Structure formats: structure tokens, C-alpha cells
């Protein structure tokens, strides 16, 4: 609609004398000056930006008729429009793999439910036999995750089996005389007592086996 109005005004101006056009131009400039003093700077619409981009391209001396706009603003609009145009022209298909058909996801889960012992490799192989090209990772992604029973903690394990568990350690002890003693020790978990220990200054494989 604004372009239609501008086109009508342009056609009307063709039939006006130069003197009348100059007077109208002077009156319009005066009104613009008054508006700039009393009204906040308006927000430019897309149509406004497009008008000034085209005007700056085809009219010499367009910078001299600007009121309320800075020439750099028009140049920036032109660059933004250039980038937007080429971004739109270079757009391609949506990146990434296409979404999987819902029927195939349902088939994977049905095969898993009917064959409880089948994992992703087996289901993947069966789908390939049916002529369905799909990766094993995708099959694993859409399988239903089975909830695993929580494993007992180390504290619970010790409490349940402490009677038949023993702790074994082999460590060194430096002495005041700059000697090094090698200590082998066995501790009972249930009684928290030393079951066996041995100390030597010269450990060997045979001695370790005997301990």
C-alpha cells in the first residue's frame, strides 16, 4: 500500500512545474524539521527500509535529502538485506538424518518385547534380513531401556559376607636404621583381627608363595 501511494504521488509530480515542486519540497522539509523537534524517532518498517535501499541505489545525491536518517543507517540496511537474501538463497534441506518412521520404532520395540533375550545386534540383524537399512546404534537408541535392580553397596556386601572375607595387604616399613622391612598381613573382616602376618627384609617369590 505505501508503494502504491508513492507511485501515485510520483505520477502527479511529473505534471507539476519545477517551481511548484521546489515549493512543495521546501514545505515538506519544514514539516519534517518540526516533527523531528517534537516526535521521537519512528521505527522503520520493512517497506521503509526497502524504499531507501532502492532510492540510494538509483538516485544520485540521495544523502542530501535525508532527514531523520543517517546515511550509515541506510548502508547498514542494504548490507543486512544483502546477507538476508543470500542466506535465503543458500538455504538447503534440514541438516541431520531424516526422522525415523513411527512404525519402525514400534517394530523394534515389539521385537524386543517378544524376544526378551535379544539385544541391539540381534534385532539389527533381523531388520537387515527384512531389507530395512538401519544402523545398530539407531536400533539401540529406540529400544526400551530395562530398569536394572540396584546393586548393593560395598558396605552392604561386607555386612552380608564378612564371615568369609579377609583383607590382604603387602607393604613396606622403613626403620630408624635406614632398613626397609616388607610386611605381609591378613585381616579377618568379621572379627577385625590379624589372622596371619610375616615380616622380612629380603622378600622373594618363594617366600611370598609360602605366605
Notes on the protein architecture:
This protein has a three-stranded antiparallel beta sheet, with no helix packed on it. The termini are far apart. Helix 3 crosses helix 4 (71-89). Strand 2 (180-188) and strand 3 (193-200) form a beta hairpin. It is built from nine helices and three strands, in the order ααααααααβββα. The radius of gyration is 43 Å and the shape is elongated. The protein is an alpha+beta fold and 211 residues long.
Supply the number of structural domains. 4
Which strand order do you get reading across the main beta sheet?
Answer: 1-2-3
Number of helices: 9
N-end to C-end Cα span: 100 Å
Structural class: alpha+beta
Key structural traits:
211 residues, alpha+beta, 12% strand
Q: SSE layout and pairings?
A:
Blueprint: H1 2-14, H2 18-38, H3 46-58, H4 71-89, H5 102-114, H6 120-129, H7 136-142, H8 154-161, E1 166-174, E2 180-188, E3 193-200, H9 205-210
Antiparallel strand pairs: 1-2, 2-3
Summarize the model shown.
The chain has 211 residues and is α+β, with helices and mostly antiparallel strands. Helix content is 52%, strand content 12%. It has a three-stranded antiparallel beta sheet, with no helix packed on it.
